[in-house]
Amino acid sequence: MNMIKDLQNQEYRQLFSEKVASLGFKGVLAFFCFHVIKMIIVVIPGGPLQVIAGAAFGTWGGLLILLLGCAAGTIIIYSIVHKFGQKLIVRFFGIEVIDTWDFLKDEKKTALAAFILFLIPGFPKDTLTYLVPLTKIPLLQFTAISLLARFPAILSSTIMGDAVIQGNWILFAVIFAATAIVGIAGIQFKDRIIKLFSVKSDTPCSHGLD
Predict the structure, then answer these.
(1) pTM beyond 0.85, yes or no
(2) Which of 71, 105, 119, 208 could cross-link 134 (Cys pair, CB 3.0–4.6 Å)?
(3) In sequence order, which residues have a C-beta less than 8 Å from that of residue 183 and are 6 or more positions away?
(4) Can you list the alpha helix ranges (DSSP code H) found in 85-138?
């Protein structure tokens, strides 16, 4: 996003901080709602938004808002998928996605697989949020897994955002480099990880993936 580039300018950072402060709770609520919408509309990238959250509300304030947004978005998506079932997923993502993530229907591995996949940087987490509810995993367990696994990536992003607003470019560069390395590794080993969990199973699934 251009906003992140603009934050390199000290004067812009000052104006940005003053604008956020002037919005008060309205700014927090607006950002929370936008993050929920981002989860529902999968095509919106999440990384830059998380960095901006750190710049606007600080490391821990941004983290809290983003986690609450993730929780709300997860619950909404879970409810939507349970109402409309597999037809909704096929309509928006295609049958190929169902086939690729077929291994999630193995109830013995659903929770562990979801946690690991959510944890890996570079994985399509928002798409996965639509697929896991097709299994029998309970809402509370799924929400807890999603938040816990997303926590490291969100925290690293809000730290970077806070570093930007403070003008601490060394910290930003270190976190960015570490995140990039982990992300590249995750992408490289993605297929192997999926293959590890992929097993043929005749276990029926309540909503799809069968």
Answers:
(1) no
(2) 208
(3) 121, 122
(4) 86-93, 95-100, 110-119, 125-131
